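Posting for a labmate who doesn't have an account.
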Amino acid sequence: MRRLTVVALSGLLLAGIAQAEPLNYNVVNLQAEARRDVPNDLMAVTMFAEQSDNDANRLSAGLNKALNMAKGMADAYPKVKFYSGENQTYPVYDNKNRASGWRGRVEAKLECRDFKQCAELIGKMQSVLQIGQWTFSVSPERRREVENELIGDALQAFNQRAEIVRSSLKAKGYKVVNLNVGGGDVEPPHPVYAKRAMAMAAEAAPAPVAEGGTGAITVTVTGAVQLAD
């Protein structure tokens, strides 16, 4: 009985190896992608105020006043999201390394999809705050939507490459062994008009022009195909 059991198990192992064996040859790894330039639909702006004073409490009061004034302006624009950013206060030292006063900084962050309204608000807020960074990007919702649309294009490109390999190697056909679909590749937001905007702030200029540009979204398909003799 033991011998029969060993023989039976050996037969099963050999059968398993025989079934797995076709995966060990004629396997080709492939990669394909689909890419699309999408208009940026999200605008993010960081604005700040910096002040110096000999009295820390007076400094804090002045910075809070500037931030509250900016918040009051933003309340008139419901389509623009207003967030408080970093709030810093630190001592200032003279050339003899003695504390000579205080310097502080407060930040306000704006986020919007209506670029015209946001630019108009920025123009008003420049009376109390300066522009630190101004970026455009593709919103997460729009990015997911485009990625879903690109999956079909990426798979089609993968199949086209597999067919080119099959034809070039004169194989009868191919089957997909494994497949991975990856999305989320998008150009990171980058500052736009930052230097120009800061220069305009000093002149209390009217609302700047907000042009969002585009962001590239890519979906990549990687996998392997087995060629049939």
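Reply:
Got it, the structure tokens are right above this. The first strand starts at residue 27 and ends at 39.
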